[in-house]
Write a structure and sequence with these properties.
The protein is of the alpha/beta class. It folds into two domains: 147 residues, Aspartate Aminotransferase, domain 1 (Alpha-Beta Complex), CATH 3.90.1150; 225 residues, Type I PLP-dependent aspartate aminotransferase-like (Major domain) (Aspartate Aminotransferase, domain 2, 3-Layer(aba) Sandwich). Helices cover 41% and strands 14% of the residues. It is built from 14 helices and 14 strands. Helix 8 links the parallel strand 5 and strand 6. Helix 12 packs parallel to helix 14. The protein starts with a helix and ends with a helix. The structure holds pyridoxal-5'-phosphate. Pyridoxal-5'-phosphate binds next to helix 5.
Length: 399
Amino acid sequence: MKLAARAGRIVPSPTLSIAATAKAMAAQGIDVVDFAAGEPDFDTPDPVKAAAEAAIRAGFTKYTASSGIDELKQAIAKKLEADHGLRYEKSQILVSCGAKHTLYNIAEALFEAGDEILIPAPFWVSYQDQVLLNDATPVLVQTHEADGYAITPGMLTACITPRTKAIIINSPCNPTGATYDRASLEGIAQIALAHDLTIISDEIYEKIIYDGVRHVSIASLGPEVATRTILVNGVSKAYAMTGWRIGYAAGPKDVITAMANIQSQSTSNPTSISQKAAVAALNGGDAFPKQMVQEFDRRRRVIVERLNKISGVSCRMPTGAFYAFPNISGLFGRKHAAGTIASASDLTAYLLQEAKVAVVPGEPFGSASHIRLSYATSLDAITRGLDRIDAAIQKLTAA
Ligand SMILES: Cc1ncc(COP(=O)(O)O)c(C=O)c1O
């Protein structure tokens, strides 16, 4: 069959396919330690489940308004005001089937052939493909590990052309775990104002931050920034609700209306039951994410310390999200029976084969020198997995 050109421009989500491989190996009885998953290993909080059960029993199982129920939009508006002092009306909020869907609606509503979209690299895998699916051109803004993946106005200016339309920022960042402070966000906002750029701010890991870092939403820097920002968030990561598929956007009314129209002609409403569950999650406040973060913090310290003890590997301490992103370029040139390690993908394949450990290679995130390990897994799995990685790396022979 002759497929549309756009289908050939993209690849399946590599993080999802590695997680699927690890799960398939486990199903065959192979003892795999899985560091690939991008989701909290905690259960969804009981009050959230109870709200969903109540919704089912009350027959809240039909279509809802395509853009989401008022009750959820109110809960989102309340959260954004309480957390960031941001005020949005109902017409400025759209509820979608996960933040990934929210981002896709944005891409459909805003991007077209000829548009250039700035994406700081390393970046979350789907940004680039969503831009490509909508005929626009991703322009990667390379950030550097040595400066904590900071993004400077100079880096942005160097990439801007008359075709630049938007920038996608992600703090806390998947995969680097870096967070942007207020000063960096002010720098980005100034550039956006000066060059008339739309800011797409993916804040899905907002609640997962460490070391006293405070999450600043770029839209809160002032009304002139808010009017050009589309804030993206959801309940997946903060409330261990990845399977419920609820994400949302808040932003200027014209773009939200366009996105809502697209949604009404594609998916219609996100699941009615999940919407009720998301209301309970948001109204439940921060107690649950805080508890989860305490545990992630313990694991973060263990995984980073262990990684830094392996010769040829170095790992920055992430300040947000739940990923370690070690630099493994010190292993390049080392050999094993079946070949030589020359990239993150080579190491990933070797670790899966030799150590039965699943990690994600950095290439789809924009770095061949890093691998990503999720520490949303038990301390026991972290210890076993790191023992295995260490042993497998020690087996490599010198370059
Ligand atoms: C940076 C980032 N944005 C968005 C998403 C999508 O989250 P959701 O489950 O709400 O679609 C993810 C999920 O991995 C992510 O890592």
